[in-house]
Amino acid sequence: MGLCGSAEASAPPKAKDAGSGSAPDNKPAGSGEQKPASGSSAGGSQPIAVQPKKMPHEEKNPDERFEQLKLLGEGASCKVVMCRDRETGKHYAMKIIQHKPEFAQMFEVEKAILGLLHHPNVVEFFDAFEDRQKKTWRILTGMCRGGELFDRVKTGSFSEKAAARLTREMLQAVHYIHTQVQSRCVLEWL
Questions:
Q1: What region, left, alpha or beta, does residue 139 occupy, with left being phi > 0 and alpha being psi -120 to 50 degrees?
Q2: Is the separation of the CB atoms in 118 and 28 below 8 Å?
Q3: Residue 37 CB partners (closer than 8 Å, separation 6+)
């Protein structure tokens, strides 16, 4: 888990095409008001779908827009790379998920949950899209600077006061995520 105390990245620029369906605002992707699927209530059984904003890179190969700079982590289903927007020079984290049927629900759930979250201690979500050429799904988020928390704890570089502050921030973020997810019936996907 990276140290994400503040958002250091800013959103990629909006499409200049007025027909994209996005209002020209500075809200992160998925920040529009979301309503439960028809026929469901706040405690209903239908999860909601969050649609990210239309971004200019959707018309072309994402690798033309984003330069992959460094592998940040890798797992069984995906990898995370640091990337740079070639148009703005901004850095982002891009999760690249293998396009396999068994990972489709994971992608949809992660995209939906990230689209609901707007908190200073939760990584900022910018976009999610499919790369049909490379058969992957991609999730674009802000970069967390500061390295791995585990590495910092292991070296003993935290005072008791700093550890208490970080613990409080992590618990606040977990509480926020739990209340947002639970209140929007997304728990049924988990």
A1: beta
A2: yes
A3: 44, 46, 47, 48, 49
Say which residue the tokens 């469901």 belong to: 40
Q: Which of the listed CATH numbers 3.60.15.10, 3.30.200.20, 3.40.50.300, 2.40.10.120 matches domain 47-145+156-189?
A: 3.30.200.20
Q: Give residue-wise pLDDT tens across range 68-104.
A: 999 999 998 899 999 999 999 999 999 999 999 899 9
Whole-angstrom Cα distance, residue 102 to residue 50? 20
Please count the residues of the chain: 190
Tell me which amino acid residue 66 is: F
CA-to-CA distance for 144 and 93, rounded, in angstroms?
Answer: 8
Q: Which of 108, 12, 111, 29 has the alpha carbon at shortest distance from 65?
A: 12
**Whole-model pTM above 0.70?**
no
Residues 6 or more apart in contact with residue 35 via CB below 8 angstroms: 48
